[in-house]
Amino acid sequence: MSTNTQTYDIKIDSLGAQGDGVGTLPDGRRAFVSGTLAGETVRARVQDEKPDGVFCAVVEVLEPAANRMAAPCPHYDRCGGCAIQHMDDASYSNFKMDAVRRALDQHGLEPETMDGPFISAPGTRRRATMAMYRSGQRVLIGFNERRSRSIVDLQTCLVLKPRLVALVPALRALGLTLLESGHGMDITMMSGDGDAVDLVFRPWKKTQNKHAQKNRQARNRKEPKLKQKQIDGPSLAILEALYDFANEHDIARIRWQDGFDKPDDLTPVADRAPFTVTLGGHMVRPSPGAFLQATEDGQAALTEVVLSGVGDARNIVDLYAGCGTFALALLRDKRHVTAVEGWRPAIDALSRAASELGGVLDTAHRDLVDDPLNAKELKDFDAVVIDPPRVGAKDQMREIANANVRTVVSVSCNPATFARDGAILKDAGFKLTHLRVVDQFLWSTHVELVGVFVNQNYVTPPRLNRG
Ligand SMILES: C[S@@+](CC[C@H](N)C(=O)[O-])C[C@H]1O[C@@H](n2cnc3c(N)ncnc32)[C@H](O)[C@@H]1O
């Protein structure tokens, strides 16, 4: 049975974690309707049926909620980049705070104080990955449509830095040279000091093109049959086009990456100017496509809690240090900081910056999942800063819990793993003294947080007692 013309009038009871309104269909199944709010009645069309519920698109809001707001972006009805632009400011803040509170409650964590959300301003996000796809003479560039791999052709974006948005029309034109019809690629953009731009172009594999094709056919568009030839490395024509693009649009650095499975296999295309980022007052040259906190003001909000959290600690280890966002900010008052990171290009960038700092910053390349720092290694540090990827750092946290560490500042982009790992500290006698919620991904359902855990069982080692 075809379901995509079926409509229902649905009463929305609550908002789900992905920002969809949740209601119940007449047959008792759960319905998820994007762009709706609790308390509304909407007419919605079925888009997709999954075992966990039926996903629907709004056809009409029959009874709007009082906290409904007109979404500011013209792409909002389709673009998957944003999920919650249609609510007033208070509801938006509550959505982000509630997401964190729910995760904390699940693990019995209660911060003594909590602040936020600190919300990054529109037009400040400094990194993004867009998709680009060519069909005949048409090139689409932008983010994926909600629950789909189709691309919403981006005319504007209220979230990204204007410098990055301004490149989109020129990238679209460049797509005619870079792509054959039926092919696509991802473009990772990063903006650094003085609006310097770093671009990494990553052609899709054959299978990804097939997905795009299948999706477009499902959407019933009449397109010519697609050619499924794999792009193998940049041709001379592509290299020249990218180089000219760099000159014309003042791009600091361009790299070409062959394949998602080879993140370090980058072909240098253009190095017109140093691509630098200032972290903690120190200049770093991050490798192409490196992790950076998404916004500068969000980074400052996280760093503020990291600094106040470690207090007067003298010897600090920064785990999952990246290019040194926190390690470099911690370098003050003659402290000693050790930065540990698993991605070679990031720690190399930080080591280069550290070499100019006279021995106050040590760096180590180490996989913290396979080989977490053990309690014996941790005993030399009086504070730990830890900022793992979304999966968290369960094993590393167990080692920290067993060590005699006074303070742990835990930074996270995932409330669920933050709370799970935080509970390991709580069970070992740490108290969550402060928590800040930071929203660097404006109008999305993502949320970041930083918590300060203080060890109630800390024993001051004799060597720190000497004077
Ligand atoms: C959320 S980022 C934080 C980076 C840094 N703290 C910052 O704020 O810029 C997580 C970092 O963990 C690193 N990472 C991921 N898996 C790792 C592993 N198994 N061992 C060590 N580092 C890892 C990533 O390369 C990335 O730099």
TrEMBL record:
- List the Gene3D superfamilies hit by this protein, alphabetically: 2.40.50.1070, Nucleic acid-binding proteins, Vaccinia Virus protein VP39
Q: Which residues form the active site?
A: C413 (nucleophile)
Question: What CDD domains does UniProt report for this protein, alphabetically?
Answer: AdoMet_MTases
Q: Which family does it belong to?
A: Belongs to the class I-like SAM-binding methyltransferase superfamily. RNA M5U methyltransferase family.
| Binding of S-adenosyl-L-methionine, residues | Q293, Y320, E341, D387
Keyword Transferase among UniProt keywords: yes
- Every copy of the TRAM domain together lies at 1-60
- Gene Ontology process terms (BP): rRNA base methylation
- Gene Ontology MF term list: 4 iron, 4 sulfur cluster binding; rRNA (uridine-C5-)-methyltransferase activity
- Specify the species: Micavibrio aeruginosavorus (strain ARL-13)
PANTHER family reported in the protein's UniProt record:
23S RRNA (URACIL(1939)-C(5))-METHYLTRANSFERASE RLMD, RNA M5U METHYLTRANSFERASE
List the keywords (alphabetical).
4Fe-4S, Iron, Iron-sulfur, Metal-binding, Methyltransferase, S-adenosyl-L-methionine, Transferase
Region described as Disordered: 207-227
Q: Record's PROSITE patterns?
A: SAM_MT_RNA_M5U, TRAM
UniProt name for this protein: TRAM domain protein
List compositional bias (Basic residues) regions by residue number: 207-219
